[in-house]
Amino acid sequence: MSTAVVQHIAKLANIPITSAEEKKLADGFTTTLGVVDQLKKLDTSTVEPTHQVTGLQNVLRDDGIDRDRMFTQEQALANALHTHNGYIVVEQILDQE
Amino acid sequence: MGTLNTLTLTDAIRKLHNNEITLDALYADVNSAVSSKNSALNIYLAQDKYAEKSAEKGTLSLLRGVPIAVKDNFLTVGLPTTASSKVLDGFMPPYESTVTSKLKKAGGVIFGKTNMDAWAHGSSTETSDYGPTKNPRNPEHLPGGSSGGSAAAVAADMCIAAIGSETAGSIRQPSAWCGVVGLKPTYGRVSRAGVVAMGSSLDCPGPITKTVEDAAILLNVIAGQDKYDATTSPVQVPDFTKMLKTGVKGVRVGIAYIDHEKLVGTPAAKAVEQAAEVLQSLGAIVDRVPLSQTLKDNTILTPDYAIGVYTVVQRGEVSSNLARYDGIRYGHDRTHFGDEAKRRIMLGTFTLSKGYADKYYVKAQQVRSLYIQNFRQLFSRYDVLISPTSPGYALKLGASKDNPMFGELEDMLEEPSSITGLPGINVPCGHDKKTNLYLGLNIVSAQWNEGLVLRAGYAFEQNTYWNSWLKKDK
Amino acid sequence: MAEPTQKHTRRTPIIGMEVHVELKTASKMFCGCANDPFHAPAPNTYTCPVCLGMPGGLPVANKKAVEWTIKLGLALGCKVALFSKFDRKHYFYPDLAKGYQISQYDQPLCENGVVHTELGDVRIHRVHLEEDTGKLQHTTIDGKRVSLIDFNRSGVPLVEIVTEPDIHSAEHAKAYAKQIHEIVRTLEISDADMEKGSMRLEANISLADDPNVLPNYKVEVKNINSFRFLEHAITFEIARQDALLNDKKIPAQETRGWNEEKRTTIVQRSKENAEDYRYFPDPDLPPMTFDAKYVEKLRAELPMLPEEKIKKLEDLGIKPEFAQLLSSSEFPLSTLETLFTAAKGKGFEPNQVASVIINRKLDIRQVKTEHVLEILANTYTKDEVDPKELESAVSAVLEEQPKAVADYKAGKTQVIGFLIGMVSKKLGKKVSPKLLSSILVRMFSSKY
Predict the structure, then answer these.
(1) Please, are residues B470 and B211 in contact by the beta-carbon 8 Å criterion?
(2) Of A27, A49, B311, C120, which is most buried with the most CB atoms under 10 A?
(3) Would you kindly state where each structural domain of chain C is located, as residue ranges?
(4) What is the ipTM of this complex?
């Protein structure tokens, strides 16, 4: 696992890392992937992947408003660091519009 | 100092109901234990100042107002919820988790929030951003994780019962290391709504208690389909306390994993063999299930591959579940993630990324299917499978540092039942007098068979001396 | 204001469209929050743990949204999947609360349909269901450039309709978009209001030298808020790309936004490397399975769609142009049939009724039958007039109105209407406009 790949992954994952951390992370990943690579030994050519173990299907909700669960504006904003007139504020990202 | 804090849940409920003890006296003793031990052991991150007031409201309900310790990944209104991460430092939830809501409705009191591995990433509670928790049986050792705080709270009698969560071993392993009972229900049995998500297809909230009967009582309260969690099953919730005492006569027990190279000849393996003899003496039909490196009828697939499956699936799901923590709507920005969290998020992102998803993620989910097939076949022959919960006694503080695969290796024996969503319980089955540390017995059964798992655990517990609350001999 | 002209290109425009439609269910897609962002009393008042992306929030799918998506797919001639699921689509943006959008990746609800327009068929590649994001507004506070986020819209059910690149002109795109608009409104699953954002258009445009070989690039154009803008944007893009290709340059693979003020598309984002969304099946949502019986039950619930209505109108003798115009849901078929029957009783043809409705922009849901008959009578009178009397009246009017005559010869043919009015006045009778019109035209061509 190269540091170039680690940089790309950090960007994709939106995780800020320093160049000092890069090498350590790369080594850690190599170790982990080494364990994971063991899976190659098993033949899964005729096996479907399992994404859910419950076997449940068609769990759908009737279309109704659930006022019990809805937040007031105050509750919605209570934990936000920056708010303004009911909006949540974030520094502007320059690439859009 | 009084000793009402050492009561089991079963006894505390009965004595409160019969007015043999008062809530005041109970809380005085529990608070006393907390003030004398919490700073040394670092178990509680937050406590409810008004716990006793809340307790009074619960006196007529099932749980009679007893104090319950809850892992800090359950959202609790009025108490901060951090999942032991600086990212959520100071986060005050605007809504309540279904599990704690049910506990409150049943008269339980959320006494405090317990320390955990940050984001539940680990098997030691050392990766908490708020310092490690120490094992109350021997504070130079780890309590295990990620529900280390809850297991320690029970072991230290700093609560009457506790709630934890398991993604792969996080209830059973710390329960083994702390010498307490821990039950991982079937995936889909208990609602995950309001629990900080880690591995969405794996996470199971469950009870950590002093006795098996205590676990059955709590499971009754928290189990059931929830309209806020689409992965909970409509399968009926029986009264688990009524399924405990019918014994294990005729129950087909398979001994698993003790022929694995890491376990052969170890104290953990010996303890399980002795446990099997106990069950046999009680009328169970006991058999060894040989380990196999491939999928083969009447053998158990080695847990080594489950490590790979769990590693990929869990990290993939966690990288996705932690994407919402950007400090915008709540919490702090992503620079506040600890090292372990960063590692897992990034590895998960990698195994889901273009060009690698087929090789890693899809492959892992396919091997998961093999384990499901294996257990399905085995449970047509056996009612329960037993194995050591952990390869050994609790390790010393610092053991998990700089080992990116520490958790996965420690939880190896739980990973097969976790990735397949099966129920399992840990009950103490060994004790080292010198170190005061414990070994645990892992009992697993088929989907929705918590009743059988509890029944076997109860029979073993009642006919041995490993439980430090039932018999004071050992 | 000068209209952008479609520069003549020898290349074939290859255009695919993506249309997003907000469904007007009562609650959001994965939670029970009110689904009405446009009328919310204040920002961030219609949120909950799920759509605000709180820790521990879990999605539960809205049954009605699923059914309406299937119905839309059926209306577009699609095949409904017997097995479908939701997938997580990951990217980071402040209006995306969870850091991923719940969408559908490889097993959408509907696939392989077709929409017929008067300018040609457009194949539907897929119709899938997903959730909308919050809304971002850019502003400056205390001199600092910030974005304000409102999550009222976060989690609203959104259907995405994707076509094959079968569209070959701006007009064709407009016809397609209008059809979709009409079908969605007929089904009553959305207001499809482009100004309010409940219907959004995107076009992928490229030019091919050989119509049988797909170009190796495509440009995505967004921010198109009306059918007119759609036409303008496509026309502009075709010209822009054509110029680049003529210069032996390949247009950059990018996302551009239509700017109506400047009448140009402007680069928004480079898409040289397609985003890695790391799709995987959402573990919080069990998959969906449908049997043929259920699909047929939904199909039986479909209202009459525009295409079928047009055919029924044509069967009643309505001209194709009129049938197309009357196909929209403002003209209920049963009301039209009632009017045709009543009109026939008074000796008027269905096309005359259609003409009157269209020309006078009548709302037949409000207007009484008697009123329509009255208008018919005034428009298509059966007053008998002596042909000789008629001819002399026409000649007289033409003598008296030299300016009108001059206008007509200059090309302003609409002046005929005025002249018809003058003739009727002179005669003191209502004469068939058609008859008068043909007389006038004959006279113009012979005398003037």
Answers:
(1) yes
(2) B311
(3) 12-298, 306-447
(4) 0.96
